[in-house]
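From the pipeline queue, job 12 of 40. The input is one protein chain; the requested action is below.

Action: predict structure.
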Amino acid sequence: MVYICTANHNIGFLSHGNTTSNELSSSIYIPPTPPERMDNMILHRASERGTADHGWLKANFSFSFGSWYDPTRMHFGVLRVMNDDIIGAGKGFGTHPHDNMEIITIPLKGALQHKDSMGNTSIINAGDVQVMSAGTGIQHSEFNPNDDRDANTLQIWLFPRERNVTPRYQQLTLDPQDRINKWQQILSPDPDDAGVWIHQDAWFHIGKFDAGSRTSYTVKREGNGVYAFVIEGSATINGQALGKRDALGIEHTRSFNIEVGPEGAEILLQDVPKQLS
């Protein structure tokens, strides 16, 4: 199976290998109820995500993707795709195209081997972050290079601030100690700032916090909202209790508080423009 993003940002599937269109459609789960909205927040429970199980790929979709469509879950501002993928040992995505999208990959476990039409060949491991600015168009492939264990990755797509930029690739190894009980910036719009950079006024941070600790976050830019995703553990964000893989979108605020649950928590904050260009 291959993910496609065309110039008008329609997102879909192509089958490959032994995966048929019937198998794709039969593996789609549609949530029975829309997400809960509360004043300036929207709650996305892990159990309400779209799912697809193709054997070698087990995917969870925070937003409508491919054959899974929910009109109440299309995007959070410029955040268009957030897929939580488990890719089987030795399996992966064949060469496929993208354009006019900022594509961020964060491996949580294992590794992915990347090849693209710009000539880049690399392996990204858990603890790395990768970004591709698809711009005028690129092709790439992604495979799990390990034949004895699965890979778990977050793949995130943002609409760009400018269309038809020159495609680019960047990969960075992060120091895990820099996120212990504090926010580690992993992405920004500034090439000279910490982390990788993209063509969008967005900032990503990851923090790994001890049980019972408290912290806060200040939104980086007026007009931005924050999509908070609990990678592991539990936390209460802005008064809303969240478990593993739950997410909370927050807007129309300058800052918010976080209380970490009894088992600790690792949290990804995606600070993104709410207004589409």
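Job complete. Residues 2-273 form a domain with the Jelly Rolls fold (CATH 2.60.120.10).
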